[in-house]
Amino acid sequence: MSMPRRLTASLALAIAASMAALPGCSRDYGYSRSAFGSKFVDKTVEQAQESAGKADAVENPDPNTVVLIYRRKTFNQENANSKDASVRITFKKDASGVAKYADIDFQAE
Predict the structure, then answer these.
(1) Fewer CB within 10 A of the end CB, N or C, for the chain?
(2) How many separate domains does the chain show?
(3) Are 86 and 71 a contacting pair, CB within 8 Å?
(4) CB under 8 Å, gap of 24 or more: what pairs does 79-82 form?
């Protein structure tokens, strides 16, 4: 009878370890490209960050452009769910001076 108890304990430990690892998986690569991209369409930089969370990095290549960079957020459903290393979302200032969504670029791993 001690053998089944050991097996049960080992199985319970393996399940607990697997469940502990799952939350980490959901934070990385948790969005398809289309789902993540939809968070930015027709939005300002501030609205986009409210929707998608704080960017990992922000670049200002020129006074009229803001680029938000998110890392390890997306995967490509059209390419066997391959992972993207980063996503670059470009915002351009309009005539009123407000930076609005202009382009998105997914960079594969």
Answers:
(1) N
(2) 1
(3) yes
(4) 79/108, 82/108, 82/109
